[in-house]
């Protein structure tokens, strides 16, 4: 073959084309997920949820994945501080929590050009448990605030004056949303020395069962998720206290049920949100839509949470 400039040019072009094909092949091998499309009903994502809401959130995710078998949602559970730290570290795309983003957290996403999307999914009561042998199961909201501030630390200092002894405030976990929501709702910045963390909801129940001077603080969804045997034990040894809101008549005390939350009569409740920071219309958006749907709201209803969009029902815990 006689070598000419024209032949050389053709050869170079063929080599370049061949090289491009090789590079494209290597790129597709090294990034197999590049062809996978993350949609509202398929793909993989990671979220975080408040540990006090673990059982209803698990039920929501399992139901969603049964319907959409190409969707895979990994959910980590932790304290309020832990799940928001995970969100800020970008290790999860969304959180299910009992509060909204703080101003600093909003600023973090502003700098990234992401607009967090809130989906209000329901409301959960904070329940107060007292021992069956304690006749003081009716508390005024002002009295509870004074207990949380450390201004009242003995039962005989309450208006009813029907019980004696030091008051013990017992919570599920240090830093849990039960603690932080309790403090926010009562306007408390620091809990008194007679407040203790028991490390689980079950231990709160056990402590109150053994100690007539205790007030246990727990989420309503935990009470509703008890087995029949455990709920019977709770009813036998523990009473759910009723609260009288400020400026209500002396005989108006309310249980922490879904009806009283919806009507604003039970004052200790927190709004629950799914905060979506994925920055696109992806799998988190699909999960949020499902939780807000009729089927998703029914799951919350059965767990003792007041759904955002469904008629409420009364949960009888005693």
Residue-averaged pLDDT: 86
Q: Which strand-content bin applies to the residues?
A: 15-25%
Determine Rg (CA atoms, Å).
Answer: 27 Å
Percent helix range: 25-40%
Q: How many domains in all?
A: 2
Annotation, overall tally of beta strands? 12
Structural class designation? alpha/beta
CATH architecture of the largest domain: 3-Layer(aba) Sandwich
Description:
By secondary structure, this protein is α/β, with parallel strands linked by helices. The protein folds into 2 domains: 5-35; 43-318, D-Maltodextrin-Binding Protein, domain 2 (3-Layer(aba) Sandwich). It is 40% helix and 21% strand. The chain contains 12 helices and 12 strands. The strands form 2 sheets. Strands 1, 2, 3, 4, 6, 7, 8, 9, 11 and 12 form a 10-stranded mixed β-sheet that branches. It has a two-stranded parallel sheet with strand order 5-10. Helix 2 links the parallel strand 1 (43-50) and strand 2 (71-78). The longest helix has 26 residues, at 5-30. It is elongated. Mean pLDDT is 86; it is low at 1-6 and 16-35.
Summarize the structure.
It contains 12 helices and 12 strands. The chain is of the alpha/beta class and 318 residues long.
What is the secondary structure topology, with strand pairs?
Layout: H1 5-30, E1 43-50, H2 54-67, E2 71-78, H3 80-88, E3 94-97, H4 103-111, E4 117-131, E5 138-140, H5 141-149, E6 168-171, H6 177-186, E7 195-197, H7 201-210, E8 214-219, H8 220-224, H9 228-237, E9 238-240, E10 242-244, H10 258-262, E11 269-276, H11 283-292, H12 294-302, E12 306-307
Parallel strand pairs: 1-2, 1-3, 5-10, 6-7, 6-8
Antiparallel strand pairs: 3-11, 4-8, 4-9, 4-11, 4-12
């Amino acid at each position: 073959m006689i070598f000419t400039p024209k032949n050389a040019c053709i050869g170079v072009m063929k080599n370049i084309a061949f090289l491009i094909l090789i590079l494209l092949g290597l790129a597709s091998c090294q990034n197999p997920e590049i062809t996978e499309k993350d949609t509202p009903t398929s793909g993989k994502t990671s979220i975080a949820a408040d540990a006090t809401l673990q059982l209803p959130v698990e039920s929501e995710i399992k139901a969603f994945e049964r319907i959409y078998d190409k969707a895979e949602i990994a959910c980590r559970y932790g304290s309020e501080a832990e799940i928001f730290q995970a969100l800020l570290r970008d290790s999860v795309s969304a959180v299910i929590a009992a509060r909204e983003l703080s101003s600093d957290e909003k600023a973090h996403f502003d700098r990234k050009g992401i607009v967090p999307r809130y989906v209000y999914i329901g409301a959960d009561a904070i329940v107060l448990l007292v021992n069956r042998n304690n006749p003081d199961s009716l508390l005024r909201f002002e009295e509870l605030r004074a207990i949380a501030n450390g201004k009242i630390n003995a039962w005989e200092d309450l208006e009813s004056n029907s019980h004696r002894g030091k008051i013990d405030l017992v919570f599920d976990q240090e830093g849990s949303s039960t603690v932080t929501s309790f403090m926010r709702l009562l306007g408390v910045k620091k809990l008194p020395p007679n407040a203790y963390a028991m490390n689980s909801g079950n231990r709160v129940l056990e402590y109150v069962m053994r100690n007539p001077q205790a007030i246990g603080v727990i989420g309503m969804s935990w009470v509703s998720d008890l087995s029949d045997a455990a709920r019977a034990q709770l009813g036998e040894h523990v009473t759910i206290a009723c609260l009288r809101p400020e400026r209500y008549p002396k005989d108006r005390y309310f249980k922490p049920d879904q009806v009283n939350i919806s009507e604003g009569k039970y004052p200790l409740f927190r709004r629950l949100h799914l905060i979506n920071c994925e920055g696109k219309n992806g799998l988190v958006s699909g999960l949020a839509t499902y939780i807000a749907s009729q089927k998703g709201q029914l799951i919350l209803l059965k767990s003792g949470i007041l759904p955002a969009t469904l008629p409420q029902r009364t949960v009888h815990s005693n």
